[in-house]
Structure formats: C-alpha cells, structure tokens
# Entry
Amino acid sequence: MSAVDRSLVAELSIFAGLTLTELDDALREARSLRFAKNAVAFEQGQEAESFFLLLHGRVRAQKLTPTGEQVVIRFIAPGEMFGVAMAIGQSIYPATAIAVVESVALAWPNSAWPGMLARFPTLGVHTMQTLGARLQESQTRLMEMSTLEVERRIAHALLRLLSQGGKQTTEGVLIDFPISRQDIAQMTGTTLHTVSRILSAWEERGLVVSGRQKVTVRNPAQLARLADAEGTS
Amino acid sequence: MSAVDRSLVAELSIFAGLTLTELDDALREARSLRFAKNAVAFEQGQEAESFFLLLHGRVRAQKLTPTGEQVVIRFIAPGEMFGVAMAIGQSIYPATAIAVVESVALAWPNSAWPGMLARFPTLGVHTMQTLGARLQESQTRLMEMSTLEVERRIAHALLRLLSQGGKQTTEGVLIDFPISRQDIAQMTGTTLHTVSRILSAWEERGLVVSGRQKVTVRNPAQLARLADAEGTS
DNA sequence: CGGCGGCTTGAGACCACTCAACAGTGGTGG
DNA sequence: CCACCACTGTTGAGTGGTCTCAAGCCGCCG
# Structure
C-alpha cells in the first residue's frame, strides 16, 4: 500500500527537477493502488477525495449523460494525472474512471494538494499545461463533431489513440490496449454498428486490421489523408 | 492607452484579496484596449504576445477548421480572461477572438505572466479553476453533440447563453448581445437553416421571440424541459 | 431609398440511425 | 478438457432527421 518506491516515478515529467528528498516528501503522502481490469477508480458524482497519477496500465474516463448514455472522454496513459477535481475547484468527480487493463496508480488525499502546490512550484505550471492540453483536445473534438462526417471522425480518433499509445508490429501500428467498437462509437458520437461497418470497409481496402477489442492501423499516413479528406478515393 | 483606473477592476474576482498597492502594481504593466464592433483582438495561429481581461463588451472566440469552416468556442463576458495561451504553454493563439460589440479589455504582455503568478498566488488558483470550468463546459457540449438531436442542442446552447448574459425584459429573458442564426449554428454544429426552422417553430409555440440578431426566451423553464426532453409535448 | 446582410421556407437527397438476426471468440465451470 | 454462454462483432433493410440547393423576403444602414 504505502512505501512507494521512488524509482517508479523519478523520471516522470511531473516530478522533473525535484531533489530526491523532495520526491520522497511528495510520495510519503501518497498511497499506491492496484486496479483490476474493469475496476472503478472513482465514479462520476461521487465526493472527490483523492487525485491520482497513473503509473502502469490504462484508464478510461467516461461521462454518463442525463439520458443514460455513456460518452468516452479520454484514455489516460501512464504518467498522466487524473481525478484532479480538487485542482479545478470541484468537490465531486465530473466523470467516472475505469481501468481498462490491470493498472497501478498513486493516490494523494485532496488535503495534500495545497501543500504540494506550495512546495513544488512546477506542479502548478504542469497542471495548468495539462488542463490546457485537454481543453485543446476537447475543442478539437468539438470541431470534428461539428463539421466532419462519421468516417473522418473515427479516423481522427484512431490517429489520436495511436499517438497516445501505438505499438509498432509487423502488420502496422497496434493500439496497445483493448478497445471495442462500442468504445470507439462513444468517443466519436456514433453507434457501434456504424463503427463496425466502417472498420470492415477499411479492412477491405487494406487500411486496418482489426478484431475483437483490437485495432491495427496498417498505414497511419494513409489514414491521416482520409481523415483530412483531400483524396476522395 | 495606459493609466488604467483601478476602480474598473477592483471588484473583479480575479483580483479579489489584493491590496490597493498590489492592484496598482499589477495594472501598471497592462494596457487598456478598445475594440470596435467586429474588431479582431487576436487571430488563430498568430504568435501569442499578450493575455487579456475583458472589462466591457463581449468577445466571441472561434476556431477555423482545416476545411475552412468556423466553429464558435464561446462568448466571453466581462470579468473573464481570454487569450491565456501563455498560461497553458502555447506559443500561438489556438483561436480567434472578435469583439461582437464595442469592447474594452486589459492586455498584459506575456512576459508579465510569470511575475504576476509569483506575486499573486490566487491568480494561479483562479486560472486553474477557469480552465477547469471551460474544460467542463467543453466536455458537456461534446456530450450534447454526441447524444442529442439538433433541437435539444440549440435549447442547451441558448440556456447557457442566458445564464451567461440574460437580461430580463417584459417579454422574457433577452440575450444581451447581437447573435445571429449563423452564430448559433456554429455553436451547435448545424446550419443556419435548421436553426431558423427551429426558432420559427418555437416562436409559433410561444417559447421564444426572436428577430434579426436577437433572441428572447419567454419561458426559460419550459425551454429547459424541452432541452432535457422529458415532456414530449 | 436602394442595397446588403440576415432570415425564412420549400423540395429533394442522403447519411447514419434503429431494428433485427446471426456469427465468431474467449473465458469458465462442470 | 470440452461444452456452453456471454460478450463482441457483422451485416441487411428500412426510416427519418438534417443537410443541400434554391428562391425570395425583410429590415436596417448608409
């Protein structure tokens, strides 16, 4: 539980520039948590008690609409903070976080936030830039939703996923965590049926290879061309 | 240009808790700018040189898609900061800002940011919360785009505009700055034609009164019910 | 008072959704 | 170890909400 090994986190950008004693200091207040596949880290609407730093694995952040539909906000990669409701002045979590594979995260109680912010000036800057990056991504997705048809939205979503966690294989670039048609649909505002049809069509054209919770992009550059849709072919 | 009167800004939440000398100190580095209606404060892609605080008027933040379409990100109300690219580690402005009515804003050079952040600890917290609020709003809109049909998206957009700048009149609540069908379409990912049809239908049902660049909601509660669509009537 | 920017309305087409049925696939328990 | 079952994915048919294209109107500003 406690006794976090500093070697796990020393090279993460969040803690860049800290001395070893400062690092130990920050880690003393944290717990290390293990989440089984499909385990819930926290739930939307719940009182926010902690903020997290993902060390291993992958976490899906999703929101439930008033009408009961799920929307996927993002996939969190190792090294990223999540559940930072405290930092943005929220007392409840605005989304649900679920481990998509077995995962390990550090968790600090919210009460540790002000102190850490005061002691580690880079934390504030880093958090602001993270928020800014997410705001940008969110606005980019908003633009895509507003102006692009489904096929191009899916292309953009896959490209983002690749840049976040793409693993080179002999066949192409594989998204290195399980992702279903349903997940992709909930990221792009469509249905799993339409995603399935489009992936099938792409597979026929040799653009991707995909299977159960698995997508490999054969040629990312070609997919990018399709996403920006200059070539109609 | 310079010589900013502190009485203009003393009660703004950003500067809450500062002494008068601190306030003068912060304002010394700022210029006061006047923007005519439809004047551009800064343009997407341009080198970010300053960050702004809107004092009077209203500013529209919009983004241009790679295919040349405009998307409206938000309307900025007095008291809000905008163009804070520096804070989130961007060297270029990610959007374009245009005054929708004659407006006045304070502008600080980006070089002033680190110093202000160090001198006024509340500024960092305030900025983080602002970013958090915008991220939330952006994600809410994403959810709406993903799951709601156009009519309800427009209802939600109008309700947000009302909460931001609604002015009570004898007919209902008026959006207190000029807004066209086109603007609403670019906020909700639809066309001005569809917006026009829907507003016409609402007008027939007595829900709104609208005209050239002007929308008054007769009964916000009823519009909210339509937005959440429990009653089908 | 003329013209331009904003708004309205109709007709037709199409993309993506819904509904529906079925087919793999992997994990699990007997 | 194998059979079953639940989960995930595929594919077809029909429908409808929204877009596109098109024409004309209104009201403000110069």
In short: The two ends of chain A are 55 Å apart (CA to CA). DSSP finds seven helices and twelve strands in chain A. The helical segments of chain A are 20-28, 113-119, 121-147, 150-165, 181-188, 192-204, 220-228.
